[in-house]
Automatic annotation (TrEMBL), chains A, B:
Species name: Phenylobacterium montanum
GST N-terminal domain boundaries: 1-85
Domain GST C-terminal: 94-223
Protein name, as recorded: Glutathione S-transferase
InterPro entries referenced in this protein's UniProt entry, alphabetically: Glutathione-S-Trfase_C-like, Glutathione-S-Trfase_C_sf, Glutathione_S-Trfase_N, GST_C, GST_superfamily, Thioredoxin-like_sf
Length: 237, 237
């Protein structure tokens, strides 16, 4: 049965981690708000009769279930899409990595919104400049150095984060590198030489035929300043 | 087999969500860093031979597995402790709520550290004051109003977040209310009348015999200004 993904239609945002998994698996899905508009998404999310309601997009509808929270959606999708480890320990570890990626994504978001999500970046620019500096200098190296270490320590080899097959976590880590390159090109150019396994993984994911097709298609929304990863001159360095 | 929990010994922090689940279930566990010291925890976490390595505490060791990320630990523990729904849809929804609680906890943390986690609160006090205002006025009502709505919409009744039994999400939501009351007593006193089901759930959890025993014991570390929920006069109002 076709998956129905509900997410904001004009940004990659958190929905992109789900889109990438569906695309990499060649799954049949509808990106509902892009096809039918945002009101169609809000009508589902705000249905007062809905017991399992989302706090926010993205959410997925499939076989009578509504599943929200990016990492939870990928936990649900992984086994069906062939993008989850088969053993229990591997699945828990893949989900752990997915949650660590979610933490990194939250921190990337807060570089441009350190004070108040309801205000514009321009209303919190001095604070954003200060937070982005700490993010570039301390947090990016800590997180990506961690993932480099996870790849190096994988008993099955550094081709994947967990075990010997592609998982949602690999795809999400690709997206994180793409996003950080977009938002912080100078910082990433300086830092990337430290992460050989990570960049090799990024390149392998980009070259997967279905992923490459997707990235070249109109389905891939370009990065922009409405999303999580935003390019503001003052925040890079 | 006894669970081994690894977390900072002087704060409730994120580890408290795990401690509460273990205590509420009457599980046998060791709080390793409290019993053996922080070096014992760091030795496990930084073991270069460890493939499934944590990014940060808390983590759990059990039956040869190391599991990190608070929500992932509870995903692992829930079924064994009798604190997870039995049906697939219920389990996914409980985990979704757990992840939404994690987002709220992150935002509560950032009220005192909006700029840089490696600096003191005192080094980012004006920014913290501004962020805390937005948190009190917009974010707390949005999150706790959401959980109130989830309780009201539970087809099994508003006694629990999911289905008709106690889950880790109920326990964690209790902890969130306790933490917010500690950190923002004035704001919470003003807001709480809006959340009848939520406060009733908080009271039922507090009265569970094992939870009440735990809260009255020395095992419950008092809230303090090293944890996530901190009481700073300037941040409440």
């Amino acid at each position: 049965m076709t998956y129905q993904l509900f997410y904001w239609p004009q940004i990659q945002g958190r929905g992109e981690f789900v889109r990438l998994a569906l695309e990499a698996a060649g799954a049949s899905y509808r990106d509902v708000a892009r096809e039918d508009g945002v009101p169609a998404m809000m009508a589902v999310m705000r249905d007062p009769a809905l017991a399992h309601r989302p706090f926010a997009p993205p959410f997925l509808r499939h076989e009578g279930l509504i599943v929200a929270q990016t990492a939870n959606i990928l936990l649900y999708l992984g086994p069906s899409l062939g993008l989850a480890p088969k053993d229990k320990g591997g699945r828990l570890f893949a989900h752990q990595l997915q949650l660590t990626i979610a933490d990194l994504v939250d921190e990337a978001h807060d570089t441009h919104h350190p004070i108040d999500v309801s205000l514009y970046y321009e209303d919190q620019k001095p604070e954003a400049t200060r937070r982005a500096k700490a993010f570039r200098e301390d947090r990016i190296p800590k997180y990506l150095g961690y993932f480099e270490g996870v790849l190096a320590a994988n008993p099955a080899g550094p081709q994947h984060l967990v075990g010997e097959g592609l998982t949602c976590a690999d795809l999400s880590l690709f997206q994180v590198v793409e996003g950080l390159r977009y938002a912080f090109p100078k910082a990433m150019a300086r830092l990337e030489p430290s992460w050989l396994h990570l960049i090799a993984l990024r390149n392998r994911v980009a070259a997967l035929p279905r992923v490459a097709d997707y990235l070249a298609s109109e389905r891939r929304i370009p990065f922009n300043e409405g999303g999580i990863f935003r390019r503001y001159e003052a925040l890079d360095g």
